Amino acid sequence: MKKTSRKNRKPKIGGQILFPVVSLIYLLLYNSAPEKTLEALNKSLSILTHLLPVFITVIVIMGLITALLQVKKMGGLLGKQSGIKGWSIAIIGGILSHGSALIWYQMLADLRDHKVRDSLIVTFLYTRAIKLPWLPLMISYFGFTFTLLLTVYIIIGAIIQGIIVDKMSSGKHL
Predict the structure, then answer these.
(1) Contact 77, 113 (CB under 8 A)
(2) Other CB atoms closer than 10 Å to residue 134's CB: what's the count?
(3) pLDDT(161) > 90
(4) Which residue from 43, 57, 36, 61 is spatially nearest to 137, judged by alpha carbons?
(5) Angle, nearest 10°, between helix axes 118-127 and 144-169?
(6) Quick check: 158 and 91 in contact, CB under 8 A?
(7) Listed ranges 19-33, 48-62, 96-110; the one with the highest mean pLDDT
(8) Which of 9, 29, 66, 143 could make an SS bond with 37 (beta carbons 3.0 to 4.6 A apart)?
(9) What is the Cα–Cα distance from 82 to 73, expressed in whole angstroms?
(10) Which helix (H) or strand (E) holds 14?
(11) What is the pLDDT of residues 82-102, one digit of tens each?
(12) Where are the beta strands (DSSP E) in the chain?
């Protein structure tokens, strides 16, 4: 498979099109129902205002992780003897990871080549179901208790899945 360099990639224009299209839709709707349109716009801005600090925090954390992450060093931290530290890194890393899972596959493959345990990779991928930017919105819809329990259950499920993969890859039967 031929890799393309950053210089040869076509620029993505999704964000450049989305904002004008949404603005046009709001303008068209304003002509037919101005009060409801303004109410919807205010609600959207309110949600954005609540989520903006979370978005900024996640982007900063991801930038720091990307800048500081060294595959060889992570391979040592997440190897056979990693213990609780390895599980914690996999869980926290999965929760903090952002974007499409496809962008993480190459890094995970590199980590696997550096002897990172499959169980920790599975745990990382499983905990990606917890989306930090969406937690405030989820709390507003479902309540704090439900959101907390679901998050804890996802983490427990990730650990169980990791243990199952660990047993299967070591040749032990459950």
Answers:
(1) no
(2) 13
(3) yes
(4) 43
(5) 160
(6) yes
(7) 19-33
(8) 29
(9) 12
(10) helix 14-32
(11) 678 888 888 988 898 877 777
(12) none
